[in-house]
Amino acid sequence: MRLGLQIPPSPVDDLITPRQELVFLDDRNRAINEDAFLKAVKWHFAEAGPNGGCADNIPRLAIYVRKLKAGRWWEG
Fold this sequence. Notes:
By secondary structure, this protein is of the alpha+beta class. The chain has one domain. About 10% of the residues lie in helices and about 30% in strands. The protein has one helix spanning about 60-70, and strands at about 20-25, 30-40, 40-45, 55. Strands 1, 2, 3 and 4 form a four-stranded antiparallel sheet that branches. β2 and β3 form a beta hairpin. The relative contact order is 0.22. The mean pLDDT is about 75.
C-alpha cells in the first residue's frame, strides 16, 4: 500500500472498531476498496488475502479516488 495512516498508540489493546470501508492506492496506482477494522492501533483487513474491489469503477467512491490520485488523501 502506498498511502497509510499512522494511529497513535492506545492504552486499550483490545479495542476493536466496527468494519469500515477503506479506499487505498496499490503499487500500480489502482484504487482498491476493502473492508477493514481497527484493533488496538493496527488496521486489519476483514477477510484474508486480497479481496478488495476496483474502487475506480464505483461511482459513490469517485470523489475519494480523485483525492487519492491527486495526493489530497487526508479527509480531516
